[in-house]
Amino acid sequence: MHIIVDDNVPLAEEFFSELGEVTCMPTREITNAVLKDVDMLICRSTLRVDQALLEGTRVRFVGSPIIGTDHADLEWLAANDIHFTNAPGCNADSVVDYVLSSLWHLAEQEGLDLQLDRRFGVVGAGQVGSRLVKRLESLGAEVLVCDPPRAALEGQSDERPEKSRFVDLDELVAECDVICVHTPMVTGGEHPTHHLINAERIRAMKPGSVLLSAGRGGCVDTAALKQRLKEQADLLTVLDVWENEPDIDAELSALVDIATPHIAGHSLDGKMQGTEIIYQQACRHFGLPARRKLGQLKPDPWLRKLVLTGWAPPEEALGLCVRACYDVRRDALGLRRYQRRFGNAEGFVRYRREYPLRREFSTLRVELKKNARELREVLEGFGFSRVKLVSK
């Protein structure tokens, strides 16, 4: 079996070499001609998987170790007996880390505390949104959620474990101080999401509120957002996803507080988990045993432990842990630097392709003095799951 893998997929040879011959190559080199005698394709969202790419090839299995499926023509693949699978949830924690790092940075930028007594709105309660809701609630924040399909499925039962409640989008926009958008791109059906955050809703946002978008670029009307920022400049904004990627609106990217090139889910941990999920799916599809496990292959993080004394002020300690593990400012500065060097679109693509190593909050071990129980609760709420109280 011959397997072509996007060279941005980590641990590809370690996982797939037992299934056949593995060839890793850049996305731009994966063409119909290259795939003629290939049996399996493993690619990321930067490759359009459709008739033009696969017609006349031997490919019968396509795996994308990512959450989304926007890049794949699922109807054509199914009609031509080509199995497609993705990895929903693989990098959801990475995106939540991105959100919390961004909110922390905005709080520092504005000279505020994190203000968890503010009302948070989460638009889209899928893999990312639901995990964000749980972390915010564990920190004591009030959260409103807009997700009509999930609301219909779950209802408003008092037995729901979450303290959050489902509301319609206009109520969420009117009531919330922080709005986080994590919806997929849906262009048809009962609940389309294209320009879900439209001009009217952008105008309705309260001055001083935060808009953060890390789902799909087309879910926010970026022209309307740019107009408000130019006219009033009274919103704090974080955009990781954009309309017309990679040729994004350069004027808008200069106006927002944090602009990053669709990398919220680009932690090494999320990517590796995605590779393992696709490997398991491939083994299942071809009737082979899945012998390899991520725990056997995952590298140790370069920063393994932080030790904090009982004198550490909670906000300073939290900020130290966030910045040590993932500081979103690195990516915001990186995008601007690459855009200056290579131009708008090429800078966007290059930074993604050359993305620096990043680990998730959950990989960092934090040791605290036993009298720092309150700080432990805050750190664990943020996602630092390896927090230990020590006596010395």
TrEMBL record:
One Pfam family hit: DUF3410
UniProt keyword annotation of Methyltransferase present: no
Residue numbers binding NAD(+): Q127, V128, D147, T183, D240, G265
Residue ranges constituting the Erythronate-4-phosphate dehydrogenase dimerisation domain according to the UniProt record: 299-372
Domain called D-isomer specific 2-hydroxyacid dehydrogenase NAD-binding: residue spans: 117-264
Superkingdom of the organism of origin: Bacteria
The enzyme's E.C. designation: 1.1.1.290
Enzyme class: oxidoreductase
Classification via InterPro entries: D-isomer_2-hydroxyacid_DH, D-isomer_DH_NAD-bd, Erythronate-4-P_DHase, Erythronate-4-P_DHase_dimer, NAD(P)-bd_dom_sf, PdxB_dimer_sf
Active site per UniProt: R216, E245, H262
Coiled-coil region(s): none
Catalytically driven reaction(s): 4-phospho-D-erythronate + NAD(+) = (R)-3-hydroxy-2-oxo-4-phosphooxybutanoate + NADH + H(+)
Protein transport among keywords: no
GO MF annotation list: 4-phosphoerythronate dehydrogenase activity
Keyword vocabulary terms for this entry: Cytoplasm, NAD, Oxidoreductase, Pyridoxine biosynthesis
Entry binding sites for substrate: S45
Function statement: Catalyzes the oxidation of erythronate-4-phosphate to 3-hydroxy-2-oxo-4-phosphonooxybutanoate.
Protein family membership: Belongs to the D-isomer specific 2-hydroxyacid dehydrogenase family. PdxB subfamily.
UniProt-recorded name of the protein: Erythronate-4-phosphate dehydrogenase
